[in-house]
Amino acid sequence: MATTTHSTSTEVHENNLETYSLVWLESAMNEANEYIEAQKRLRKLINHLKIFDDVEQCESYMRSVPKDDRIILIISDQLGQDVITRIHSLPQIFTIYIYCSDNKQNNDWTKKFEKIEGISTKVNALVDQILLDQTTRFRNKVDEILPINIFNSGTQAEKSTTGLNGQFMFSQLLIDRLLRMKPKVTDKNELTDRCKKFYKNNSSELAIIQEFEKDYVSDRALWWYTRESFLYRLLNKALRTQDIDLLFLFRFFMCDIQKQLQKLQCSTFLRVYRGQVISKDELDTLKTSTGQFISMNSFLSTSLDRRLALSFLSSSTISGDLQRILFEIDLDPTLAGIKPFADITSSSFFTNEQEVLIMLGSIFRLVNIDCQNGVWIAHMAICSDNDNSLKPIYDYMKNEYDENDSGSSDFSFGILLFKMGQYDKAEKYCNRLLSELPRDHPDLAPCYHNLGMVANHKGKYDTSLEWFAKALEMYNKTRQPDDPVVATTYNSIGEVHFRKGNRTNALESFKKALSIRKKRFGEEHLQVAMCYHQAPREE
């Protein structure tokens, strides 16, 4: 059961694995059974419930919640006007419900605040409305936050981690690596253990987790994904926030969904629809991106019924700078190199909906966007991962992350984490691999090397040299002396010595790297030129 909290905000929202949270602010929270039961009912749909009796602490917490998360605020009428005036414009405040202790109270002041969704003098009636509204949001999807990335093919190809194009490609590669990794038999147990800890005081969700543990099979992945439960809520937020730890545990589930979509893949052309509420900034970005590539970094739920999608959209509450948009998406199954999509009606938890689910990471071209009767219409068409504008940079970045790879997607995931700047997670993941791999496994050497890179980045130079020495020892046993990865390791050792100010050792290591590359590639090769550029001059 949730209790009155005086916790600091940083401790609170870091543990929220869902997008939505409930905040209940009341100066004197009643401990009657009616309130306790209300809290239990609310947590069936929104697990994260924080109760405050201190206005200042409550406001501090709400301001510290990430702007892309969504707070549903329940507040008493005695505190409502002053508090709502101060916090109404915060983007993380999604909707507000007021509990009014006196039905004679004049609440005319509420009319000027768009986010106020309901007012009630009865706790149970207020809870009923919140649960109904939240269930509707889950079913029509228009209020979900869609993680969208844009690739601008008209600009110079970016080969860095920054900018729209860089983020687009990193998201694609992250999804690619996760789906290529072989699931382990322990994955489901690890995921459910993590979920049990998060939902430890939520008996309703714990029962569903236990059911999942007992009954889940891979060909029922779509049924479980479309059910309103921890799986849908946690996976979607993890994809949006790129929560590496959680996505790693979900990879077996994502692979199962992919396999089901491939099995159910549509064989004819479809036009599907998705209503969505987006911010003005997001709309402005789309309006300037006609002709460009768009990736939806989540599983995209769409409808075959345009009128239904528009009705869902028109029923959504609009406040602040939010805008309504309808995505009209053309799906051509004859294109090579597209991710799967399927009518999942027969496999869904809800068997009366004409739902077409599009695979995570699918890429679309934005054909045009215009406004019709107060609703923005964005016409998109699915396109191939092998499109001429995308393929060169996609291949470049894949090769870049496979620089020291043994060919295993398990290890390449560690490289990707490092390249994304997720140094702690890269270190954690590589140490996990070391504990699982046999002593003669080919992934050990590149794993040591990646740990050396992480330690070097963190300024732990002696630790970095120890890891590189282990990598070199393993490479000397498993590779030829002139193998490029041996040169790369010597080069990395040289960089660490150079950072430590030991120019003599740095020069010696760079010379070894140069010698290997000259022997392997000849004097004119780019890698040889890079060695000359990186090596310090002899004094």
Automatic annotation (TrEMBL):
Residues that span the membrane, as ranges = none
| The organism's place on the tree of life at top rank | Eukaryota
Keyword Membrane in record: no
Catalyses: L-arginyl-[protein] + NAD(+) = N(omega)-(ADP-D-ribosyl)-L-arginyl-[protein] + nicotinamide + H(+)
**EC number of the protein:** 2.4.2.31
Q: Which UniProt keywords apply?
A: Glycosyltransferase, NAD, NADP, Nucleotidyltransferase, Repeat, TPR repeat, Transferase
Family, according to the entry, reads as follows: Belongs to the Arg-specific ADP-ribosyltransferase family.
Stated name of the protein: NAD(P)(+)--arginine ADP-ribosyltransferase
Q: Which organism is it from?
A: Rotaria sordida
